[in-house]
Amino acid sequence: MKLTEQIFNRLDGPADLTDGALVATYDATLTAIAGIRHATKTPDATPSLDKVGATWPALKGQDKVEGASGWICLDDNGNPWNKAMPIARLTFDRSGAKPDLLTVAWPTGEPPAGSCTPPPPS
Fold first, then answer.
1. Distance CA 81, CA 98 (A)
2. What is the tens place of the pLDDT at every residue in 15-58?
3. 18, 35, 102, 109: which has the fewest Cβ within 10 Å?
4. SS3 for 102?
5. Residue 9 has pLDDT above 50, yes or no
6. From CA 101, how far away is CA 7, in angstroms rounded?
7. How far is the C-alpha of 122 from the C-alpha of 84, rounded, in Å?
């Protein structure tokens, strides 16, 4: 499935898929919700910020976040690992800039495996 199809299928209704701020905000919100859920022992509890932050390394493998921009897998330090990067070309006309998605690239050269598990720290 193409990145744009993934984004469209994750949103409820039509959205401007060229809006990078929309995609980033959506993904950040999903990641925050996943961290809060991992840090909450009971449905009525409110976890501390420290507890939520301590859950970031758990957001990988089966607990990866399925964001609008693709999988979000965090390493042992809570940093994104092998995150998809869209490669776009901007063309300009009288109505302004229009991005064309050319491809998607990953830091390791290929998408993460289904396990979405970063390698151990070296």
1. 29
2. 555 667 778 888 889 999 999 999 998 878 889 999 998 998 88
3. 109
4. strand
5. yes
6. 13
7. 22
User: Tokens 């995150």 sit at which residue?
Assistant: 83
Structure confidence by residue, pLDDT tens digits, 80-103: 888 888 888 888 777 777 777 788
Token representation of residue 43: 């449905």
DSSP state of 106: -
- Report the distance separating Cα 28 and Cα 13, nearest Å: 19
d(CA 69, CA 106): 12
Residues β-bridged to residue 92: 97
Q: Which of 43, 122, 42, 27 is nearest to 83 (CA)?
A: 27
- Single pTM value for the model: 0.70
User: What are the structure tokens assigned to 92, written together?
Assistant: 């300009």
Q: Which amino acid is at 120?
A: P
